[in-house]
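Long-time lurker, first post.

We've been arguing in lab meeting about whether zinc ion would sit comfortably in this protein at all. Half the group thinks yes, half thinks no, and nobody has a model to point at. So I'm putting the question to the forum: if I give you the sequence and the SMILES, can you give me back a predicted structure of the complex? Inputs are below. Any interpretation is welcome too.
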Amino acid sequence: MSDLSPPGVDRHTHLEGSLDPGWVRQSAAARGLAVPPALELLWRGEACPFEGFIEAFLFGAELLDHPDAIQGAVRAAVSRLPEGHGEPRGLDLWVSPHFLVEHRKLLPLDQLWKGLEAGIAEAARQGVRIAVVVDAVNHFGPRHGHATLNLVLPERPPWVRGFSTGGLEGVPFREWAPVFDRARAAGLRIAAHAGENGPGSNVREAVLEGGVARIVHGVRAAGDPGILDLLAARMVPVDVCLSSNRCLVPDLDPHPLPVLLAAGVRCALGTDDPGVVPCDLPSEWERARRLGVPAEGLEQLRRNAVEDAWCLNPGEGS
Ligand SMILES: [Zn+2]
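Top reply:
Settle the argument with this. Predicted structure of the protein with zinc ion, as tokens:
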């Protein structure tokens, strides 16, 4: 039934976490590297401690040292979208240029942009639109945030539409506000991973003190009606990644997606790191159904996925 089919828009996935497992295995073998046990565990759908997830994520990320590899990662992310059946298809793609270019020096910035450009053009030929969101690491602090902007702003391609923080929610969002202000002034939209590995109150702080316009995860805010009211009243989009949460926030059981939707929060689904925690948009949709999200909630997820996607709705500095 078309009214219960998943949307064609993945609202949150990381380039570095989207790699095709077969490609990772092949690339590792070609370099004489053994795939770490943590990644094998995750690929089999088994539980893994957070440190293991990070090790698994970084193992794949460090294979991204060539534009072809970057393009292949975009292709893998696009392949996890459902067929569009004439509906809009798109992907809001988080990318960590500072990690790839400066921190690990895997490839120069122009080669990263070249690979992304090729992947985005290939996706466009399949009717898939992509917005890139530059991800900085919260716990590295605002100086790292400014360094990331110094790297990407001078020759920013037009498909780089957003700036976000990820990693551990270790530095208060009010301290990030000047970085967000600078990114916004340069025409980028602002998102943050919040209320995932940090408390739900981080979601309120991100919105009120950081000026963040979009929340990734936000799931720990579900127990605080005041924060849910704030998100609903301000129509803040929230990207929810069920498989990722099950792996990295295992204490959240049952998952609060139905609570968020019932409170009027503008949630949409994303895959987060589907090359590490295997999933795709149709499987996330099935998970939402199995959580008991009612038909009107599913319809809301579909509508929000399209209406709030940055890949489909270019906007500046919001
Ligand atoms: Zn994420």
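For your lab meeting: The first strand starts at residue 9 and ends at 14. The longest helix spans residues 109-125. Whichever side wins, do check it experimentally.
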